Amino acid sequence: MARRKKIYEGKAKTLYEGPEPGTIVQYFKDDATAFNAEKRDVIEGKGVLNNLLSEFFMQGLGQIGVPTHFLKRLNMREQLVRSCEIIPLEVIVRNYAAGSMSKRLGIEEGTQLPRPIVEYCYKDDALGDPLVTEEHIAAFGWASQQDMDDILSLALRVNDFLSGVMLAVGIRLVDFKIEIGRVYEGDFQRLVVADEISPDSCRLWDIETGQKLDKDVFRRDLGSLTDAYTEVARRLGVMPNNPPAPGKPTLVN
């Protein structure tokens, strides 16, 4: 499709004006970053895989009644999504200790948590996306108490869905993060799952071997990121059983 006006460029995606008012074209890049962009590279095919996987997850959420900003996939790298006002929070759901939680609390990675724990980080790259509490969120007006109740409900519903989908293909959903957007409909607003859901935003471990199938492969130099993401897509049926050479995935119709 013809390029439209660029409205935002992030570390992994670029947003363009959509063809209709209230829509945005979301383009998935091959860029990989970690540690607040201190480590970066270009991984051929990563954007295609994330586009297909995010489409798969967003459609699945829609089918069980979880509202998202996703409208349709346009091509191998672009999605059409609803324009929404992003709440400046990363919503993190943890089922097992890993990453920053293990470091903060001294809990061994892989330890199953007593129940899913939901954390919030303030979205600000310059500050390193600091962990915040509901008190901070209320005090600074980032979200109302009703918003927070709805966000918690959405996050746990997404967790139930993703956990089940991953368990069925032999993958443990360790944790994930989502973003939430406000969509205005006349005088009313509703909250929707926005941004993306992909191995970039989840920790995914093979149940049998513990092999990491997420961006920790890039963070920790554990091998080919494309191979890891392709394996997730293959298990979920998004990729064929015999995918093409790394970096050049194709769509299964």
Assign the CATH class of the largest domain.
Answer: Alpha Beta
What is the count of structural domains? 2
Q: What is the strand content?
A: 25-35%
Q: Based on the structure given, which CATH architecture of the largest domain is correct?
A: 2-Layer Sandwich
| Radius of gyration, whole Å | 18 Å
CATH superfamily of the largest domain: ATP-grasp fold, B domain
Largest sheet: 7 strands, antiparallel
Runs in which pLDDT lies below 50 for 5 or more consecutive residues are: 240-253
CA distance, first residue to last residue: 20 Å
| Total strands | 14
CATH fold naming of the largest domain: D-amino Acid Aminotransferase, Chain A, domain 1
- Element-by-element helix/strand order: EEEEEHEEEEHEEHHEEEHH
**Mean pLDDT, all residues:** 92
Shape: globular
**In DSSP terms, counting alpha (H) and pi (I) runs of 4 or more, how many helices?**
6
What structural category arises from helix and sheet content?
A: alpha+beta
Describe, in plain words, how this protein is organized in 3D:
The structure is a single chain. The protein is of the alpha+beta class and 253 residues long. It has two domains: 6-84 and 226-235, Phosphorylase Kinase, domain 1; 85-206, D-amino Acid Aminotransferase, Chain A, domain 1 (2-Layer Sandwich). It contains six helices and 14 strands. The protein has helices at residues 46-63, 99-105, 134-139, 145-168, 216-219, 225-235; strands at residues 6-9, 13-17, 23-28, 31-34, 39-42, 70-73, 78-82, 85-86, 89-96, 112-122, 131-132, 171-185, 188-194, 202-206. Strand 4 (31-34) and strand 5 form a beta hairpin.
